Amino acid sequence: MIQRPQARLPISGGRWGGRDWLVAPLLMIAVLAVYHPAWRGRLIWDDDRHVTSPELRSGHGLWQIWFELGATQQYYPLTHSVFWIEQTLWGDEPLGYHLLNIALHGLAAVLVWRILRCLDVPGAFWAAAIFALHPLQVESVAWISELKNTLSTVFCLAALLAYLSFDRTRRISWYVLALGLFGLALLSKTVTAVLPPALLVILWWQRGRLAWRRDVLPLVPWLLLGAAAGGLTAWVERKLIRAEGAEFDFSFLERLLIAGRAVWFYLGKLFWPADLIFTYPRWLIHQAGFWQYLFPLSALTVLLTLWLLRRRARAPLAAALCYVGALFPALGFFNVYPFRYSFVADHFQYLASLAIIVPVVGGVTWFFRQGGRLWRLTGRMLGFSLLTLLAVLSWQQSRMYADLETLYRTTIARNPDCWLAYYNLGVVLSKAKQMPAAVECYKQTLRLVPRYAEAHNNLGMALGQQGDLTEALEQLRQAVEIRPDFAEAHSNLASLLLPAGHVLEAREHYQRALELRPDSADAHNGLGNVLLRLGQTSAAVDEYQRAVQLDRNYAEAQYNLATALLTLGRNSAAVAQFQRALRLSPALAEAHNNLGTALLNLRRNAEAIEQYRQATTLRPDYAEAHFNCGSALAGIGKVHEAIEQYERALRCADATGPASLAGAIRARLKEYRAGQP
């Protein structure tokens, strides 16, 4: 018999008691303290793509975040709007981003406590505290990009709490508020589309049955909204983020094997959070491995058993359904880009973990309440001991997110075959100019994935900077052979072919790079260098100008353009261009020297001398600048000072060369000394 529509959940409404006012600040303070090591953590992995890229840091950029698919890495417009606001408030300084993430996690824990109080679930505080302090949550809280997890979870839990108030009172205002909060959750991260099914499971758990008008009908709009948002995200993941291709080519049976293993993996990490890693090993999935079928079969057996026992106890089945349902978007049935590296990640079960934590804690709390005072005291002592242990583990785990190098070295220590960590560590070391260590990381990457074009490309550039030009060219040739459409590799190969004397081949690769990426400022600049070497100075100017148009802050292209203009005798234009280059790179001694030459050609000797002096201040051994300064001084009659500059130039030329410059300086010195009294 279906219950009448006016029936309500047997919930208390979660009235605040005497000590309740202490719980929220206690949870917030605990979270802030435990995550203190992450406060000063630097940007990691794809944080730079989330902390609002420069082209979106405007009012129009905010419009793009909401209405232009592909403007951001994923279509989570509310999350990226919060990043936009944060960037406006504190720029690229990570502290503010970390504190907001940590505060949102603390607020989520407070909402968990309030929801459980409303539902009269035993151990509400303990469940909320375990969720707050569990080391499994560190990845979501300490990683800035996972604002989408913490923000969406806050809105999701707030929507759940508001819906419970609606179910108790049937006031339309509560329903509208709950639906609005659910919409905000979806706009933050669409994994929260699991909320309406979870609400139906909660209602079934409380009542034992569902009524169409009372329970299901109000949630139909939620289900449709969630399905639409989830469908859009799945499309974006495949078509815009490119989560497709051979690495995602699995049959339905193989996806079932992935899902079954993932469920047990996540449960294992939840109950025994040891060796938590940023990137776990990617499993080899093959239908012939009979033991792999044990994972989905055992999971289905457990679900079937809980279904058969539902009349005796609904809570275990409700927990299992909520857990698997919350994990479902990340179980392998949909393509998710991180599956390229691993089928599992800690942040995938941030929200889902509540479905296990809450019933387990509730059951344990109920068990200890059955005994006497000493038994209950024992339970509290065990609870505080567990919270202390979890807090220590989270403190230690959050230190892993201090910076990129720490993150990747820790990952390699725990997962020695993680090619992604080796590759990314190589990138970090390359930027730090630690080339031998970077080369070793790229070699380790290629040991694990021999046909990884990006690793060949980066290894080639690192070897080039070490002076091993032959091996560098070989690595870059392999990169373009593996990926003929790899524009950056074509451009990098050309940049090393040019100093090796292969000018025409360098031109071919620059042209190929520009066919693939016409907006590559580096390729236009490099092609300009080739054309300059071939004596096609006017054509080189065109390429440099294109590079500057594409990137106004490209100091090297600005300098190259100025030098080409100087070669053509366009001194006034060259002066203006050198000045632009020096605004971007004031310490470029060559630019000061060449600017001096352009000014000298315009008979602005005093200004030319000043530029030559700045060049020699930046580089005291700059023989050519000393020589040019001497010539400029001689031109205005300051012969003694000119001789002094020539003598300095000669000392520098004798020490560093070239010999031809030293010979010219000696001839000039002889000429001026002969004319002295």
Uncertain runs are 1-11
Average pLDDT metric:
92
Task: Report strand %.
Answer: under 5%
The number of helices is 33
Radius of gyration: 33 Å
Quick one: how many beta strands? 0
Q: From the helix content, strand content and strand pairing, which structural class follows?
A: mainly alpha
Helical content class:
55-70%
Written account of the structure:
- The protein has 33 helices and no strands.
- With 677 residues, it is mainly α.
- The protein has a domain at 20-51 and 92-399.
- The protein is elongated.
- Residues 1-11 have low confidence and may be disordered.
Concise account of the structure shown:
By secondary structure, this protein is an all-alpha fold. The protein has helices at residues 20-34, 47-50, 59-67, 77-90, 94-118, 124-133, 138-142, 147-169, 172-188, 195-207, 212-216, 220-239, 252-271, 294-308, 315-327, 354-369, 373-398, 404-414, 419-431, 435-448, 453-466, 469-482, 487-497, 503-516, 521-533, 537-550, 555-567, 571-584, 589-601, 605-618, 623-635, 639-656, 659-674. The chain has a domain at 20-51 and 92-399.
SSE arrangement:
Blueprint: H1 20-34, H2 47-50, H3 59-67, H4 77-90, H5 94-118, H6 124-133, H7 138-142, H8 147-169, H9 172-188, H10 195-207, H11 212-216, H12 220-239, H13 252-271, H14 294-308, H15 315-327, H16 354-369, H17 373-398, H18 404-414, H19 419-431, H20 435-448, H21 453-466, H22 469-482, H23 487-497, H24 503-516, H25 521-533, H26 537-550, H27 555-567, H28 571-584, H29 589-601, H30 605-618, H31 623-635, H32 639-656, H33 659-674
